[in-house]
């Protein structure tokens, strides 16, 4: 790809720009997906954005120029993050508390890691970029039958006053699980109490409607931004490690599996704030130590980078669960979309952190390590949601410390 469109020498700036523009698309998708799914439903937006990702990835195969490829790549980024965020919210709202944590960590994240591991394997055996893109696009078609399997979120339907549709889904789930459902799921008084909330349409400014909510939102935005810088900075730096680039990329993906398992175990048994802060301290602290390793100890340096990636990845996976638990149903998807937008800003900046390594080898690690440790301290001031039911209204939101 680099040679075909001559992305070398004086045009070598185009390669990292392509990556950054993909993340710009991811940023836009993060921003709009939450608002769209809060308005039109989780399921509709999930499958619409999956179609966008698969369709435009296929069109990329026929790109005739770098400009065409990059524009299509930006649109693919919009669809990719949108269906990821909406699928996460949909699963979170459908599943019960115990299963929700497994889904949010081991479910979503492990499958992400498996896809991550398959990427360098595909790239190793398929060296032609068009055929590689085709191989990565075709699996998207297998998601079509899921339309008839995945239901809409009952929580979202209830928040919209569509009780009959929600009741059908809940009764079907009860039947599948062998649990007897009560004769009346929604009492008239409960339905009346929810009417004011249904009539209220959420907007982005609702994330800043009170001082407490605004403080939580701003701290969450910073947390997502700097965690993303650390995660993508370490992920994108793999070609700069010593050894084979394909092997390094594979190892970078493999280390995510135990990170997700640890994140799941921490979420099951320990407070959210301490779990997040601890993993951020681990990731940031280890990355800071890399500068102290002698230049000839390459394996130790790679090992420390992997350990840092382990800590930051574990924190990243817990952010989704924590964020969902902080906000009420009315703006939950919007909140995840907004914080995910901050995360994408971090991913746009991350390639330039890596680029600083061309001037000073350890500078990217010093910056990423320092910022990760600082954000670990900030996390301790957020409210604790461990063992508390998901809030349904703004009044039920926890107070910041």
Automatic annotation (TrEMBL):
GO terms for biological process: monoatomic ion transport. Gene3D superfamilies: MFS general substrate transporter like domains. InterPro entries: MFS_dom (IPR020846), MFS_sugar_transport-like (IPR005828), MFS_trans_sf (IPR036259), Sugar_transporter_CS (IPR005829). It comes from the Eukaryota. GO terms for cellular component: endomembrane system; membrane. PROSITE patterns: MFS, SUGAR_TRANSPORT_1. The chain crosses the membrane at residues 15-33, 45-62, 68-90, 102-126, 132-150, 213-233, 245-267, 274-293, 299-322, 334-356, 362-382. This is Solute carrier family 22 member 4. It comes from Apaloderma vittatum (Bar-tailed trogon).
């Amino acid at each position: 790809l680099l040679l075909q469109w001559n992305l070398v020498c004086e045009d070598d700036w185009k390669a990292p720009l392509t990556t950054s523009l993909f993340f710009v698309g991811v940023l836009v998708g993060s921003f709009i997906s939450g608002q769209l799914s809060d308005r039109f439903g989780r399921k509709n937006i999930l499958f619409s954005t999956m179609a966008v990702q698969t369709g435009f990835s296929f069109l990329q195969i026929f790109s005739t120029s770098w400009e065409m490829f990059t524009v299509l790549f930006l649109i693919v980024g919009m669809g990719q993050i949108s269906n990821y965020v909406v699928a996460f919210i949909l699963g979170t709202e459908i599943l019960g508390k115990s299963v929700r944590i497994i889904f949010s960590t081991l479910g979503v994240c492990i499958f992400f890691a498996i896809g991550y591991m398959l990427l360098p394997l595909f790239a190793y055996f398929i060296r032609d970029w068009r055929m590689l893109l085709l191989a990565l696009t075709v699996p998207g078609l297998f998601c079509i039958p899921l339309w008839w399997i995945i239901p809409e979120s009952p929580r979202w339907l209830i928040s919209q006053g569509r009780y009959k549709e929600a009741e059908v889904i809940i009764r079907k789930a009860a039947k599948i699980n062998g649990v007897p459902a009560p004769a009346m799921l929604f009492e008239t008084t409960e339905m009346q109490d929810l009417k004011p909330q249904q009539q209220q349409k959420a907007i982005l400014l609702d994330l800043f409607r009170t001082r407490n909510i605004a403080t939580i939102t701003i701290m969450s935005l910073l947390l997502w931004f700097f965690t993303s810088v650390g995660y993508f900075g370490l992920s994108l730096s793999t070609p700069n490690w010593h050894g084979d680039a394909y092997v390094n990329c594979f190892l970078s993906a493999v280390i995510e599996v135990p990170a997700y398992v640890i994140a799941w175990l921490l979420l099951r048994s320990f407070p959210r704030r301490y779990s997040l802060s601890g993993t951020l301290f681990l990731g940031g602290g280890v990355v800071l130590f890399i500068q102290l390793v002698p230049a000839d100890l390459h394996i130790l340096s790679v090992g420390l980078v992997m350990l840092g990636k382990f800590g930051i990845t574990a924190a990243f996976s817990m952010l989704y669960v924590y964020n969902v638990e902080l906000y009420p149903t009315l703006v939950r998807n919007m909140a995840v979309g907004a914080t995910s937008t901050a995360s994408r800003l971090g991913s746009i900046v991350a390639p330039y952190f890596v680029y600083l390594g061309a001037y000073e080898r350890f500078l990217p690690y010093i910056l990423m390590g320092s910022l990760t440790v600082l954000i670990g301290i900030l996390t301790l001031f957020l409210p604790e949601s461990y063992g508390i039911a998901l809030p349904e209204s703004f009044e039920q939101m926890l107070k910041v410390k």
